[in-house]
Amino acid sequence: MPVIELSVKELNALIGEEIGVERLVSSITKMGADVESADEKTITVEFFPDRPDLLSVEGTARALRSFLRITPGLQTYSLNPATAEVTVDPSILPIRRYIECLVVKEVRLNEDLLKGLMEIQEDLHWALGRDRKKVAIGVHDSAKITPPYTYRAAAPEEIGFEPLGMPGQEMSLSRILEKHPKGVEYAGIISGFDKYPVILDSKGNVLSMPPIINGELTKLTVDTTDIFVEMTGTDARAVRYAMNILTAAFAEHKWTLSTVTVKYPDKNVITPNLKPIERRLSVDYTNRMLGLNLTPEEVKLCLEKTGYGAVKEGDGLRVSVPAYRSDILHDIDLVEDVAIGYGYDRFETELPALSTTGRRLPAESVVRKARRAMLGLGFTEVMTLMLTNEAVNNERMCTCDSAVKLQNPISIEHTIIRTHLLPSLLEVLYINRHRELPQRIFEAGDVLKLDPDVETGARSVWRLAGVVVHGKANFSEIKSIFNAVLRDLSIEGKIESFEHPSFIPGRCAQVVGVGYFGELHPQVLTNFGLEYPAVAFEITLK
Hints:
Blueprint: E1 3-7, H1 8-15, H2 21-30, E2 34-38, E3 42-46, H3 57-67, E4 80-88, H4 93-96, E5 98-105, H5 111-127, E6 135-141, E7 149-154, E8 160-161, E9 171-172, H6 173-179, H7 181-186, E10 196-200, E11 206-209, E12 213-214, E13 227-233, H8 236-251, E14 256-263, E15 268-271, E16 277-282, H9 283-290, H10 296-305, E17 309-313, E18 316-321, H11 331-342, H12 362-376, E19 380-381, E20 387-388, H13 390-395, E21 416-417, H14 422-431, E22 439-450, E23 458-469, H15 475-488, E24 495-497, E25 503-511, E26 515-520, H16 522-527, E27 534-540
Parallel strand pairs: 4-7, 4-14, 19-22
Antiparallel strand pairs: 1-3, 2-3, 5-13, 5-14, 6-13, 7-10, 8-9, 10-11, 11-12, 14-15, 16-18, 17-18, 20-21, 22-23, 23-27, 24-25, 25-26, 26-27
Helix pairs in contact: 1-3, 10-11
């Protein structure tokens, strides 16, 4: 989860009152965040990723003003009429079709604000942008460029500019993808296209190459007074909320904000749009979910304490949801904020009315037995995430397993559900490669296998895997370990030769329907950054 550092001085300046650190920490904690550390100058907070509007000192200050009832209710910000235009060329639509923009004037920056602006950009890239795939943000010194602007696709060698961080080095779009650190890191987002996105001003100056890098020409400094913000992406909702969050953060500093007209081939759109979203919340539903007996007025006060506008309407409330609250998808999300406004510390604890007796699941009994067997063989247990990515799960293992893909992954590191355990163990060995040898680790956990015979299309399988790495690790060693595991688990089967792409040919064997073992292929070891021989096995437990 994202961790941010809040300046106590800046926080109080934005809140508008001098509030002690102890009260700030208490209030932030009651809002649902985890305060990791605090002193007289800085508070370090870990926020849940579903609240990207809090990932800045500006957003936290706004939430605290409501929570402390300094200015409860819906916070509103004014936007001046559009002063600039962006034309969206049809060539960009198949690549990265959505764009929102903002003009900010009378900006007053210092080193801390500049650093904070860069940090909130990266946090939004992670929380809403899915590492720039859905949203990429460009913030520019608009004194150095001339509107109107054009958003279009350009051939790899058609345009050149000085990318941020490389002054005096004009590079083509293709060269940026090959040589610039950000180009190398994010090239995969647009590498499948024969043209790449660019944003130009009326004089042909390049503002940015979304989602890769901005131009050096529009780099912000502490002397910047006018800013042009552009956000591009593949998800209209994500782009809209990212823009609204950043716009609200700028508004907290009382800077002058103006909308921008985005001219698509078939329509014109004014961005950003900070109009709140209206929802209706039932008081009965709220009380039923929370086990309380609140009146409509009490629910209204709780909602205002968490930054909403609320008006009694019949037997419920008409709730105005701020345009920057990307996490409100269902009425239960509003109920959660009612609970926060009410105070979790005020809920009375009670024992369940039903008494039950638990027992261990049959599958867990097998897993516990497997763990005892591995510990008895001198292995150390590790526990890794089920989420991984195709590079780790397949490419580094020299395999091509089909896996269940996540529809909305939070990062490029976690895009699929693992199909076997060994890649995770090898990643652990890489992280601990500086430790002394031998290393013997294992994991007992579940993987997800595609299965057309199952209604959901996939089934969970419990597996056990172990890896041994040291200078003399060999087939005989892992065979004896494998036999011992089968014996302890009362599994019978005939060992026979087996070919597996992750293992050295001729040094791999299996028990059909149970699992396999052998010496890992040198290419696999190289792919995971391991410098010593390693042997491994993996079996199915259930």
